Amino acid sequence: MPDIKFFLIFLSILFLFESCSVNPVTGKRELMLVSESQELSMGASYDKDVSNDYGIYDDNNLNNYINYVGQKLVKQVHRKNLNYHFKVLDAAEVNAFAVPGGYIYITRGLLAYLNNEAQLAAVLGHELGHVNARHSAKQMTNSMLGQFGLLAGTIAVPELQNYQEVISSGVQLLFLKFSRSDEVQADHLGVVYSSKAGYDSFEMAKFFETLERLEPKSSGKLPEWASTHPNPDNRIDNVERDTLQIRSTLPIPKSEYAVLKEQFIKNIDGMTFGDDPREGFYEDGYFYHPVLKFKFIVPDGFKVQNSKSKVLITPQQKDSVIVFHLTNGRDLDSAINQFRLNRSIKVYSYSNVIINNLKAVKVVSSLVQNKMLLVSYFIQKGDKIYQFDSFYKNFPERYQFIPMSFSALFDPHKLDRKPKRIKVIMTTFHGSLKKHLAKFNINDPKDVDKIALLNGIYADTVLKEGELIKIIE
Question: Which long-range contacts (CB under 8 A, 24 or more apart) does 19-27 make?
Fold first, then answer.
């Protein structure tokens, strides 16, 4: 028996040794259960999920510009063998994140609060730091070793986490929080990569000051930067110290580190700011979609999480989750046939119903593993089929009035809703930001402070004639 125990221990040690790899940044061996080939495979898969769920911002010039800056940084990274991709997400949240394998995303919400190309390079460099130090792979390894589900806590009802394929693509896997030591390392690498690319990385510290002034305002579509990137202590001081240290090793004169405010600001002129109502919005107890011209009730107390591919509706009691989305079916029959192919669902009954003069089918089923009730409504409006999936812990069909309220939208005030946009203006005299904004009839102190924050300055900051600033149009 001792020989068997010794053999098992030997195999365990051998497995752990074989699972160790050299970190490309530190050069040290570390336990890693996710190989580089697995990272590449996951990255390609997650990229499709991110693009489908959150959408890439529809501006080729802006996406090309972000990629141009990102590729300048790629020349300085440790893992040059990866094929890096840089994309702008059509999301209002202030965030940026990286997918294992070299996919870097930055939201238009974060871009709005950047004020020059050096700050952009710092943020992209930070995310490149996570990829090059393999932080996501390390987090996944820790999760595997900790023997807890990677999907834990991704949706409001924990019992549903094993059915993420029914509800979501699993993109939330990407939002495992990094440790403070990972953030310190990513900040340091952001300074190194951007400085070597010729950017003034002191601007990274200035952007972190802006982040500190921003209150977290997550609508649920994506987490905010602060929720996935916990601030290390003395973050700003660390960046300034690292900047001085790396500059002492580079042959670039102090005056030649680039900031490039004008290039950056002109590239975000006209960019959508905040939530885009054309993708759906919640107001007065209803969810409205101006483009697809429908509405349905969402009472007070329900949390609404709207994304490109779905709407998640969760009551305060958290005893259910309602998932609303557009199906791929050409008609009701094809949509229901696709639904039946899902092996994690057992169907009990079908019934034809009429919902506000629209043909619909109600399907009662359950999740195979735990028999949780699932009530689905397939509704045909024009040439599109919409689907409500209501997952219940208790109180079967308690919230069926929500799908039953689905109807066509005719109100011109809702149909004509337009998004806010960034507008770049040039100052025409020497004076405070507050005085410049008064020329555009922006006088409310709260509005002035919002625009000051948008520009990384203060209401009383004095601007010279000919400076570019952003306002919200």
Answer: 23/133, 23/134, 24/78, 24/79, 24/132, 24/133, 24/134, 25/78, 25/129, 25/132, 25/133, 25/185, 25/189, 26/133
Cα–Cα dist 8/13, whole Å: 9
Taking alpha carbons only, the member of 155, 160, 152, 156 closest to residue 374 is 160
Domain coverage including residue 459: 427-472
In-domain check, residue 242: yes
CA distance linking residue 377 with residue 352, whole number of Å? 10
Residue 126 lies in a domain: yes
**25 assigned to some structural domain:** no
| Rounded CA separation 8/12 (Å) | 6
Helix, strand, coil percent content, the chain, rounded in steps of 5: 40, 25, 35
Per-residue pLDDT tens digits for 409-465: 999 999 999 999 999 999 999 999 999 999 999 999 999 999 999 999 999 999 999
Do residues 148 and 57 share a domain? yes
Q: Pick from 111, 122, 128: which is nearest to 63 by CA?
A: 111
Angle at 175 between CA 174 and CA 178, to 5 degrees: 110
Contact assessment for residue 96 and residue 110, using Cβ atoms and an 8 Å cutoff: yes
Distance in angstroms (rounded) separating the CA atoms of residues 101 and 82:
7
Which residue from 101, 93, 100, 98 is spatially nearest to 57, judged by alpha carbons? 93
Rounded CA separation 379/80 (Å): 49
pLDDT tens profile 363-410: 999 888 777 899 999 999 999 999 999 998 777 788 999 999 999 999
Residue 60 lies in a domain: yes
